[in-house]
Amino acid sequence: MARTGESVPTADQVGDDRELPEVDLDAEAVTAASAAEAALAVAPELVANSVAEYVRAWWQRVRGGDTGVLPIVVGLIVIMALFQALNHSFLTAGNITNLLVQGGVFVLLGMAEIFVLILGEIDLSLGYVAGLSAVIVALLMSPSVNLPWIVAVVAGLATGTAIGVLQGTLVTRLHLPSFVVTLAGQLGWWGLMIWVVDTTNPTSGGVISVTNPVVFNLVNGNMTALEGWITVVLAVVAYAAFSLTRDNRRRRNGLAVPPFGLTLLRTGVVAVAAVVLLLIVDANRGTATVPLSGMPPVVIVVPVIMILWTFLLSATRFGRYVYAIGGNREAARRAGVNLTRIRTGAFALAGLTGAMAGIVYESRLGSISIGIDGGTLVLFGVASAVIGGASLMGGRGKPIHALLGGIVIAAIYNGMVLMGLSVAVQYMITALVLLAALTIDRVARRGRAFRSSAED
Amino acid sequence: MTEPAQGEARSAAADRALGAPGEDRPEDPPGGQTPILELRQLDKNFGPVQALVGINLSLPRGKVTALVGDNGAGKSVMIKTISGVWAPDGGEILWEGRQVHIRSPKEAAALGITTMYQDLALCDNLDIVQNMFLGHEELQLGSLNEIKMELAARRVLDSLSVTSLRTIRQPVASLSGGQRQTVAVARAVMAQSALVIMDEPTAALGVAATAMVLSLIKRLSSQGVTVLMVSHNLNDVFAVADHMAILRLGHLVATGPASNFDAQSAVHFMTTGRSGRAGDGATAGLS
Prior knowledge:
Chain A has 20 helices and two strands. Chain A is mostly helical.
């Protein structure tokens, strides 16, 4: 009893712990917001019984700040309308095809960034990882070495992956910030690329041509109308079969299923989009005497890679752990996730996808130069991912975000070139678009009690 | 392979038979069976600071034991020692009657010990099912078997009578504090833990959420799970605890059925290390 004068808690005081104003306020805020929050966070397709109900739930979610891909789709339409008004050749078949092809590199770089952005990391070296990998591919296929294209491509992809593993190891094992490691990589891989070209082809002037027809035609070739139609039909049928099978399995197990009408509607949208795309690329974009039409294979290849990476991130343990680490690293560690392996793996996949971007890049230009602006390319990659909806703070991002964001960047880039704007103006406008996208995202989400972003 | 298992089952049955109520073996605590976890003369030092001194404690199976004490009494040191964050400097830890050396949280988890810390260790960006299965996802042909996981998660939540969730496919970020605790508890049940250690489970919760978590703790113990609950809040302790253990400055000053204590005597033990009343028969006394 002698110490009662000090801070000895009485039973009442102890019991009142939870009534401390600060704690209580926090708890109340959570409770007050939680009812509305819970409704917002729920995927609308899982609580709706009809398409109309779905639209209502979806709209409620958008108004609550979870806008999904809506701003990016609206933004794309606005940008396209704007450029079309300014220059009537913007929405021609030839330019749209050109835009899609240009976007391929941005989309691939964006998908590469997605892997590390989800973790809350960044990779600034990917532009030159792409360049170095492209140099390896071009060199191995060049007449002096003359390896089969497949060997060269595999070697190029392996180069990108190895760089990713190396940088990932430095980040995870030595606990260096990824920003610094990959900034060093940006310089280092550029230097290595120049050295490789200069020592192997001293008289080339720093440019190596892509002579192999398979790699060249990845972007510059055109599928026949029949091949295009077969691809489109197969893609739509596969999408419908996948959706219906998944819904059926869930229904059989008594789990919530999106309304049938919605699945039908989505399949319809996919089908219409695919057919419109095909009609555009199959229109004659040459001249009357020298016709040019057909789908460049890259327009198929990039979405296929996107589907692959989406599967990897959403349907495998690896992907689940990438999101878990991005959401709460400590929770993932306590759950037994091997942080080092998963994080290094994400950097490796970023490097691999960066190498793919390099191959598309050199295919489009028909050559690879040591003058490649990898610094700008990687920023376009990050911009694609972020404009599309990935978070720089980690925990959020999907490959489709990079696809949509990459097309937006390509549209802006393409439109500005079409208008004859100088590079200086192009850079400034692109910077403004990136800032605008981030601002919209921030403002839209401000109302949400999204703890992970609140902590940041 | 079946032989030893049967043998073990028999001996477990024998243990239960021996430990039937009223037939206490000398080394057993009241209640009968071998305690799920027993600490004997446990010491833990940090340099010259003695954080735990000669702790003797048994956690009876399927019961809620509350570990209470003032700040700095050694509660956190004790649960971290049990959950393998660090090794004790002296004494023994017995798991189901056998001596064990728990060298890491992973080894503790392998024994069936789950520790729920205050920050709950949930991933805000993952949904309830994904959080409950994090680290032991169900696979089918190499990809995640979402249907199996969702069904299993729903069964566990139903068994805990959790009805306040609209769908279990919502991200944890959208949940209230009490609902987050629910997910963390469900995660422990999912992992089929035999012992769940909860560090301040009701801190930062509102009144309704506290009531929800307390009923959850009761339901957990009614499913046969042993719970060791660390709390500052004596109201909550008396609401759910079957047993109490009171720490003061690294010493275990009192243990016994919760009914032997009241708020006043518990606070007295926490602050002075002695019973407040002369002739109080509540406790095991001073260490």
